[in-house]
Amino acid sequence: MRGHRIQLIVLALFASLFLFYPLSHILVYSVQYNNELSLRFFKILFTTKLYQDLILHSLNIALAVTIICSVFAYFIAFLLTRFNIPLQKILATLVIAPLIVPPFVGVIGVKQLFGRFGSINLLLLHNNIVEEPIDWLGSNGLIGVIALQVVHLMPILFLTLRASLRNSHQSLEEAALVSGATTLFSLLKITLPLTLPGWFAGATLVFVASFTDLGTPLMFDYREVISVQIFNMLSDINTNPVGYSLVVFTCIISIVLYTLSRSLFLYGGFVSTDKYSKRAPQFVTSKSTACILGGIVFAYGLMASIPQLSLVLTASSERWFMTIAPEKLTLNNFLLVFSHPLTARSIAISILLSALATILTILLGLTSSHIISRAGRTISSVVESISLVPLAIPGLVFAFGFIGAFAGSIIDNRVNPLPLLVFAYTVRRLPTLVRITTAGFQEANKSLEDAAYIVGAGRYQTMRQIILPLVKRHLYAGALLTFAYSMIEVSDSLFLALEEKYYPIAKAMYALIGRPDGIELASALGVIVMATLIILFYLSQRLSGSTLRTLSAIVGILVVAPRPSLASADELVLLSPHWEGIRHEFSEAFARSWEKRTGKTVEFRWMDVGGTSDIVKYVKSEFKRNPNSIGVDIFFGGGIDSFLELERFGFLTPAKISERVLAQIPSDIAGTPLFSESHLWFANSMSTFGILCNLDALKLLRKPAPRSWAALASPEYNSYISAGDPRKSGSMHAMYEIILQGYGWEKGWEIIYGIAGNTRRFTNNASQVGKDVTTGDALCGIVIDTYANEIVKRVGEQHVSFILPEDFVSVNGDGAAILRGAPNMQVAQAFAEFLLTKEAQTLWYGKKGVTGGPQRYEIGKLSVLPSIYDTTAPASLFRSNPFRLPNMLSYNASLASARWNILNDLFGAFIVDTHSNLKSLSSNQLPNQAPVSEEMINNLQKTTPWGDDQSLRAQIVAQWSTQAQKLVAESNRQAGVSKIPVLLLLASLILTLGARRFR
Amino acid sequence: MTSLSIRNITKRFGGLPILDNISIDIEDGEFFSLLGPSGCGKSTLLRIIAGLEQADSGTIAVGGDSIDHLPPQRRGIGFVFQNYALWPHMTVLDNVLFGLKANGTPPSVRKKRVENVLELVQLSHLRARFPHELSGGQQQRVALARALAIRPSVILLDEPLSNLDARLRLDIRNELAALHRELGTTTVYVTHDQDDALSLSNRIALVNSGQVAQIGTPTQLYFTPQSKFVGEFLGSTNLIDATAYKPGIHDELHVSINGISHAPIILHQKLALASSEDKINGTLSIRPESIRASCNPDEQSGKLEAVVVSRQFRGFYELIELRLKNGVTLNQITTERSPDDGVVEGATAYITWTASDLLFLPESMEKACARA
Fold first, then answer.
1. What angle do CA A567, A571, A577 make, to 5 degrees?
2. CA A818 vs CA A239, A574, A636, A668: distances in Å
3. Quick check: B60 pLDDT over 70?
4. Which strands, in side-by-side order, build the sheet including B329-334?
5. If contacts are CB pairs under 8 Å, which of residues 171-200 in chain A contact chain B?
6. Is the ipTM of this complex over 0.90?
7. Cβ contacts of B89 on chain A, cutoff 8 Å
8. How many contacts does A have with B, using Cβ atoms within 8 A?
9. How much of chain A is helix, strand and coil, in % rounded to 5?
10. pTM for this one?
11. What is the DSSP pairing of strand A780-784 with strand A721-724?
12. Calpha distance A897→A646 (Å, rounded)
């Protein structure tokens, strides 16, 4: 046999660059402290109960999902392979379809149906079948997470089991029958064990996929899993090494589990007894029985399609609020997908990325699997192990590694994420393809290939005419999976694509879901992607699986698809938590004014790294990596506390704003400054905070609307409040700070504990609170006026209402600043000045259609220009001039800013991370005092600026989280999740032992 | 009594008859072969006997009792598959034990029975191995042991030697024969290999296109084929188009080869002819071993003339290819070696044979056989 030298070199090069280098990068950073080798961050991991719990939860969910999937998959695969069920192909497609819908997209629809005031519960409530809504998805969303993962991942097991059942040789079962075994006995002893290798291959995929799934728990705001925690740690990757060590730890656990289960379940080896290929045996049943069995499969398919079906409903609804079905249907959302710049571009980008990744994966995967099945033992096992490594490593880990490892290189994702995304998709999908094609090669006899060489065929000819046709079916299945999965790849897309113009579909959907106006559009995008993939899948199945045809289809789409425009112009790079409406109006308006001034166009590059808190973490983390410039011009949006924080670190550059413009703006509101004296930052709009209430749901449950912050702590709202994680959202942070300042530290914490006890879950995303309220998942939520405005406008004032708390109102400036080393300084300066002009201020405050007002979206935020309140028709709900309000809280912004991060960590440790325990306490069991004295917090900041010593910070946070666990654990034995694992572990033990017997 | 009776079995696949009204009676303890070319339906018949397929019509009886209504697991019939169908996830021991476990044999009996069977096939030392750790011959014996373990009344073997190399084939063939002598189980053996069938069987049914061409002992089939097909299939006989007639009602049969003028070949074969004018077309079968050829012109008188095409050394015999004047080629096998006899390529040879070894196969009988 000829050597594989060139192929091996190519594989080695790819593996070392995109597999080992990123992984070693993570490893190096996790064991390094002040440039010395140190394991202190691992010690923190191992000694903190929070992390132990996280790992246990993740494993349990993955195990539960794998077991449930196995049961369904066996049952359905068996029915479809062994019975003469009519319409088999269509039924199989129905069962497989959910595979190509990312589970997190399904969350939208599922919540709409199964939420506390979703269609099902409303149906029950209106017919007086129940009095209180049933929590179908689990109080923390756990059931929802498991259910969606099961539905999404089951097809993987179904496909592998169907293949095993189909390939099992007829004579093996017949031999059992003539030996005297009953059909059942033969199924249990022969058929089932023979499918175990196939099952194992699928189950590993399912387990790891569930274990590392980020999208689903993120969308359910189920935070007690590793993936979500790692996601949260990403924004300060350069300043918080605990993230690295958690990633390494996860990775190790993953690899260990993988190897362990592999060695447990693998047979000594298999002989192919096939010489005369025969079909797997079929049970002969009457037509009616076959139809009933087909009906069962159909019922499952229908059940599994609920997320997609409800997605279709959501996508085609114009309004769906607290009613069993949407009030009004429309097709506009689908049309909008193709005209909306974000969605249209994301489709093109995803197709481009997936096609490139599929081609690269096929090339590398086919080479690997050919070597694995044909080369010598040592080489083949080395290649096999390496090619399967990514299977054991969560996508998050890669994303984490890629971002760190390639920072500053020519393929830095911050500049252009596309190359790295292609490589990331390829690495992630390689194991699947290698596994599938290796199986193909092992089925095909090597002598067939040798025969070609002997008659004088070259390597290329042999590949094309002998090898490819032999593994055609396998290759086709693998390529299809690669393409489909790349189209909907979540973690890499979420992590690596930071700029809207490079968003793949998954990130675009995630971004849309995070926007108040985006759900329907995201659903429509989801539906279109889903439909396209289903059609592609079905067609290629019908075309009897020609690889070439599939490839040409992919390439065809590639050619037809609109290419992302990469025209050059002046550009402006912005970091902003602002939503699409604001981005759109300001970029349009500024572009017009820039063109008028200079005659040049300007392209806005919006970087998306999360909410305000995430942006601050990101900026700090990036400047640590590259102190001169982080390639961003403007930080636009977010409360001024965050700007004070960045000012302290010296990350800002003064904006040159003319005195004439500044003169019109007051220097402060209720004691809070509106711009820094050195013009390092300036407020250009203002926010107020309050309570968003679902009036219909309150009425259904006969509860009053809360009128003050303190009222939210009342036990009558138990489990019906929605609030967010201050570590992720600046507006959430601001509200907690307001309560602490308004009521004082001690009383403030008592109220915060009360609110936390009532909170259903802490969302990752400020806009999610608004959505929880509109779906009725929560009766009330704490929100910034921007989001409240949008929701009230969409749903109607008679259904939801935004309440300004009676105890005190706070108005906070929303800032903007030019970052140090801004690459487009001239444009940035112009944009800064533009933000304070009357034109820009009218965009914030004015109604759509007012002269100089917004054109497409209505923003409805408060202006910093007092004169505007007397002249312009407001779009805001807040209709009075905020500069003249009576019960205004005098907000100490510098205090707030100084302890910004410390408070986040404190709140995170004592409230969010222990929340599952907290909410199970009754109101009188809740702690009624501050966990740490205010003095200590303020001193901690003064003596050791928070965040300077990462090790100290990590240690203190770990201490806090242990303390917090103790605080609530005394009055509460953990319930819920922890009971499931015992059962699951037991079940898996039995299964493992059972499988061992067959070795 | 474990005789096996196959009565009027017909099986069609998609309208095409695979088995066409087949009837065979196999006696108790008999080693019976179903011989025939690939695709003639013999394997299907075996699967119908085992209950793995359903016949469209007809009846199978074991020991006089119909087993048509029984599922395969209750027929008590052993089956050795062509690919052995050894369960890859079980050891040799587990494979053999399986049937006993399935039919609920008590553990103590099981153990003894398995020991016996493994000993019988000489595999006791390999009991802990998995199938993929065995050689082809060993796998074959495991398959046999597995079939025997349940003490079947009838054992069915579906081309069991076809996956083995020539040497191993011979060994196993001998073992099979020995086993059958020892156990005396009624055995039905499906093969397309005439050597297997001829050497092992008490009787053979030669099957062609779903019909029995001829049933008989190996000798009967070999020496007195009733049709061209049978003659052609068994051994490499020379078949020459010929015409037969009787000069008088009580005369011997006169046969002349078509396309050559020669003195009629006189055969002591009984063949009813309507009259002396009645000439019938058919085939003359001449066994290669019964041909003698000489290149000595002295022996030329009254003999058929041919040209030596080739002379091949074949170990203990030689094969000589001869071409008659009408272009028909005859094969001669001879064990008499005399290099100087002048039989070389291109030489003219004069052919004689022992008339009693010759057989005339009339065309009409061929047709009659095909209908049977």
1. 115
2. 22, 9, 9, 20
3. yes
4. B291-294, B348-353, B304-313, B318-324, B329-334
5. 171-172, 174-182, 185-186, 189-190, 193-194, 196
6. no
7. 193-194, 196, 267, 998-999
8. 97
9. 65, 10, 30
10. 0.74
11. parallel
12. 9
